[in-house]
């Protein structure tokens, strides 16, 4: 009879408890899973969550994407950097000659299937390392990787009255967001979230704990600014803090037939120079949501990070008649808490970047409408939610990154003001076949869009890691120079290529072929 890992694990625990067998030297019994048994030689078995534990299933379900809720043999939940270091040393020695197993590393758990979750192996779950605090002496806010942004914002607001350049959706995790760049309300002012990290505390593959900043391990510091899970596990981000000024913040809903005006407003907004644009932030998304009576609606989020309710930045958008609209002062903590996209659906996504040209934006709108029509007939109009996102990517963001010490995002490869486009589909009711179909449709949409962009002389080979589908070559798109640099850094801090080999999820340097 075939059993799932969870059933097997439960069976073994049951057998062991009824025979009172203790196979190890006292701390705990073997599980039969090499990476979980690696902990028998440490005093950290109490930090393991096996499938037999009541804490196990809630942890699986806490991943944002329904299809990312893979069931590992065990979770390891360190409370401190030292515990993680001990664990890494134990794991590097584990499983000689054993069958296939690997490791996933989880921050906030917002990425997709197989990225920070795994079935054949162990998940290092940083969720219990979730504190944040402010040091007025240095002006830095220290943020642990397993926190989600709303908790960071509330904590820093109430302990120091400061804030940081983090996520907009309060449910997004710190670790993945900052390692993949981090597009924030404050990005036009401060750069990507990673550009504001002054120091990283990192556990390397040999278990040693190092700091990476402008003076110490400066190459590692720069590589971590956008290079993802390729160099080590970050256990603390020391970030530039700023006063917690309330945002001027609003959301509006606009009918889809105003699309042409919306596109023009986005293009206009994106072309604003740094001196005009640095405090304003705009996100526009077209969405099909069965909760709405319309097939597609347009949602607009506006923020002025300096609390300027009279900013002129959004005039073109607010001139368009809206079905509903808000505009008020709001703390970043409240804004993040209130704008959490519900998880649980099986998610598919894709991203492209293209120059800020109206015909390309309009093409996404009609491709999105095609997608909604097609999925409505294939999987049923009430079984999915879509998003077709526009995020302004003005060219001056590259210079901000440079001023902050440089990153590996390769933004200088984008020859002008651009739009960071993403499509997302959440299958709320459907099986694996439905998800496979959506994956193919979204990928084909991207192929068509790339063609349009090229025909309009607006194609850009730049794929933002935090939004990329696993089929996309994000790191490669950051350019040969950055890939070469990241390879050098990975080789220096992980000479055995342990992270490349043992942590396969997400975007790995080893898989970049160019
Ligand atoms: C609803 C929603 C809203 C979003 N909004 C934004 C946004 O406003 N701006 C933006 O830029 N992105 C946004 N994203 C994308 C988001 O940044 C990525 O999904 C990011 O990976 C989430 O980080 P996480 O820690 O929650 O993810 P995880 O799934 O936990 O981790 C993602 C990757 O990072 C690695 N990782 C995590 N922590 C560490 C660590 N400490 N050390 C080493 N590796 C680590 C993991 O191994 C994995 O490869 C959003 C995503 C969702 C689902
Ligand atoms: C348990 O055994 C491991 C090796 O199997 C050893 O390293 C460790 O020191 C032992 N612990 C105790 C408490 O005896
Ligand atoms: C494990 O042992 C170390 C070193 O003796 C100690 O500092 C730590 O508190 C112990 N951890 C646990 C979880 O018991
Ligand atoms: C934060 O971590 C602590 C343990 O350090 C844990 O008890 C708590 O549940 C965590 N909070 C969240 C929101 O996960
Ligand atoms: C917090 O900081 C903001 C911005 O500097 C300021 O306006 C506000 O008065 C401060 N709040 C408190 C309680 O100090
Ligand atoms: C959009 O539709 C609404 C009513 O359905 C109508 O009042 C409005 O004039 C239309 N706008 C455009 C730009 O077509
Ligand atoms: C976050 O938002 C929810 C829902 O609006 C609300 O119930 C909760 O009190 C908010 N949390 C905080 C800390 O304000
Ligand atoms: C761990 O790796 C780093 C980077 O390669 C190296 O500098 C350090 O000496 C190593 N530490 C040990 C104890 O081997």
From TrEMBL:
<dbReference type="GO" id="GO:0016491">
    <property type="term" value="F:oxidoreductase activity"/>
</dbReference>
<keyword id="KW-0560">Oxidoreductase</keyword>
<feature type="signal peptide">
    <location>
        <begin position="1"/>
        <end position="21"/>
    </location>
</feature>
<dbReference type="InterPro" id="IPR036318">
    <property type="entry name" value="FAD-bd_PCMH-like_sf"/>
</dbReference>
<dbReference type="InterPro" id="IPR050416">
    <property type="entry name" value="FAD-linked_Oxidoreductase"/>
</dbReference>
<dbReference type="InterPro" id="IPR016166">
    <property type="entry name" value="FAD-bd_PCMH"/>
</dbReference>
<feature type="domain" description="FAD-binding PCMH-type">
    <location>
        <begin position="68"/>
        <end position="244"/>
    </location>
</feature>
<dbReference type="GO" id="GO:0071949">
    <property type="term" value="F:FAD binding"/>
</dbReference>
<protein>
    <submittedName>
        <fullName>FAD binding domain-containing protein</fullName>
    </submittedName>
</protein>
<keyword id="KW-0732">Signal</keyword>
<keyword id="KW-0274">FAD</keyword>
<dbReference type="Pfam" id="PF01565">
    <property type="entry name" value="FAD_binding_4"/>
</dbReference>
<dbReference type="InterPro" id="IPR016169">
    <property type="entry name" value="FAD-bd_PCMH_sub2"/>
</dbReference>
<dbReference type="InterPro" id="IPR006094">
    <property type="entry name" value="Oxid_FAD_bind_N"/>
</dbReference>
<comment type="similarity">
    <text>Belongs to the oxygen-dependent FAD-linked oxidoreductase family.</text>
</comment>
<keyword id="KW-0285">Flavoprotein</keyword>
């Amino acid at each position: 009879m075939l059993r799932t890992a969870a059933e097997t694990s439960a069976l073994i625990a049951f057998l062991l408890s009824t025979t009172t067998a203790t196979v190890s030297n006292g701390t705990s019994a073997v599980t039969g899973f090499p990476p979980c048994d690696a902990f028998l030689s440490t005093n950290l078995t109490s930090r393991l969550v096996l499938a037999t534990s009541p804490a196990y299933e809630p942890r699986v379900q806490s991943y944002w994407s329904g299809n990312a809720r893979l069931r590992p043999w065990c979770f390891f939940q360190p409370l401190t950097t030292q515990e993680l270091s001990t664990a890494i040393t134990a794991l590097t020695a584990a499983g000689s000659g054993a069958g296939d197993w690997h490791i996933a590393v989880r921050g906030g758990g917002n990425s997709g299937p197989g990225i920070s979750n795994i079935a054949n192996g162990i998940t290092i779950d940083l969720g219990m390392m979730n504190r944040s605090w402010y040091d007025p002496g240095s002006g830095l806010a220290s943020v642990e990787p397993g926190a989600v942004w709303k908790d960071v914002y509330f904590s820093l607001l109430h302990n120091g009255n400061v804030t940081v350049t983090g996520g907009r959706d309060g449910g997004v995790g710190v670790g993945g967001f900052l390692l993949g760049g981090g597009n924030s309300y404050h990005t036009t002012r401060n750069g990507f979230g990673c550009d504001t990290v002054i120091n990283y505390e990192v556990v390397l593959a040999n278990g040693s704990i190092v700091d990476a900043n402008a003076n110490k391990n400066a190459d590692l510091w720069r590589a971590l600014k956008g290079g993802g899970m390729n160099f080590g596990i970050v256990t603390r981000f020391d970030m530039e803090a700023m006063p917690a000024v309330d945002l001027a913040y609003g959301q509006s809903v606009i009918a889809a037939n105003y699309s042409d005006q919306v596109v023009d407003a986005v293009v206009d907004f994106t072309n604003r120079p740094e001196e005009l644009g640095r405090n304003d932030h705009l996100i526009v998304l077209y969405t099909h949501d069965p909760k709405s009576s319309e097939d597609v609606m347009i949602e607009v989020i506006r923020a002025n990070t300096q609390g300027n309710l009279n900013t002129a930045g959004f005039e073109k958008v607010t001139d368009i008649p809206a079905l509903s609209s808000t505009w008020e002062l709001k703390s970043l903590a409240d804004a993040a808490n209130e704008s959490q996209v519900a998880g649980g659906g099986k998610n598919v996504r894709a991203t492209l970047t293209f120059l800020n040209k109206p015909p390309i934006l309009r093409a996404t709108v009609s491709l999105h409408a095609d997608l909604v029509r097609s999925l409505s007939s294939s999987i049923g109009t009430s079984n999915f939610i879509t998003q077709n996102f526009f995020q302004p990517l003005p060219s001056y963001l590259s210079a901000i990154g440079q001023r902050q010490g440089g990153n590996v995002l390769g933004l200088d490869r984008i020859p002008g003001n651009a739009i960071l486009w993403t499509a997302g589909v959440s299958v709320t009711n459907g099986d694996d076949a439905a998800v496979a179909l959506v994956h193919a449709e979204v990928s084909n949409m991207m192929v068509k869009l790339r063609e349009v962009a090229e025909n309009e002389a607006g194609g850009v080979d730049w794929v933002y890691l935090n939004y990329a589908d696993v089929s996309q070559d994000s790191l490669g798109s950051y350019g040969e120079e950055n890939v070469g640099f990241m390879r050098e850094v990975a080789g220096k801090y992980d000479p055995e290529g342990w992270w490349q080999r043992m942590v396969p999820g997400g975007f790995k340097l080893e898989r970049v072929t160019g």
